[in-house]
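Tutorial handout. Part one gives the primary structure; part two gives the three-dimensional structure as tokens.
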Amino acid sequence: MKKYCVGVVGALGAVGTEMLKILEQRDFPIETIKPLDVKENEGKKICFKGQDVEVRSAEEGAFRDLDIALFSAGEVASRNLAPVAVSEGCIVIDNSNAFRMDPEKPLIIPEVNPEDIMWHKGIIANPNCSTIQMLVALKPLHDRFGIKRIVVSTYQAVSGSGLFGIAELEEQLRAYTEDRELEVKVYPHQIAFNAIPHIDSFTDNGYTKEEMKMVHETHKIFHNSDIAITATAVRIPVIRCHSESINIETEEPIDLQEAKEVLYRAQGIKVLDNVSTNIYPLAAELAGTNEVYVGRIRQDFSVANGLNMWVVADNLRKGAALNAVQIAETLIQLK
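Part two.
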């Protein structure tokens, strides 16, 4: 089997750290691993497959010996460095928002649209975490019944804001137990014991960028801009795993039992749905897992062809790092 030289840009961040773990856990065929980060972190070491590996600076020249680079260092770094990496002969799989809506860059969820990888020109975009788990759950239902409308509300973990979001929640919880004032830095309001209906900045239409990402990315991935979509994104005091309440309306009559069977058979999905024994997906129980979990599957009696469901996935894994690694796996399979 051919082995590949792989770089991880943003290797010391929350998602970059997870990318390295997943590459090791899934035994990706690696000849050499190169962790890359900001210049200030050059010389630090990470452990990969029992070996200490030195972190290098992510800059021009760093990609010349790489086949694939997984980027998770933010939009500015991606815009500046991804074209450099491509010019140095490397294929980029980018986790930022930099290229998601670029018509020249495929936006990939391997369980949903792997065929789109074939038209990449050096850069492949990884979708937003909330879009990934939603579309993994909805693709098999869309194939069978034809989705015409989606209403989604997300309940997103603080790790979606990176290490700073996690640290802010933990510090506020400590301050609360010690009867100290809760400092607010990362979020516009206190996140401990709260729910903030505000992720990313607001746009002129009253929606946030996070909410509009789900709309535009769904249209691009499904190759169908006729699907009506509305989203509300909420940050909650959970460390890992995003949860979503999803309502769909379909073109074809949707039978509840058939819908469940479609989900049971689908790739990348695990159904946890037995309300008689209080079985449904819970963020507290699913951190560190790879699948998209679906439960509370029930008909929406307010419309002719409607279905409700509750969807949970680890936002650092399937919502980011794992999806990027799966893209790389699909890429080398198609070569």
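Part three, for discussion. The mean pLDDT is 97. Residues 4-126+320-334 form a domain with the Rossmann fold fold (CATH 3.40.50.720).
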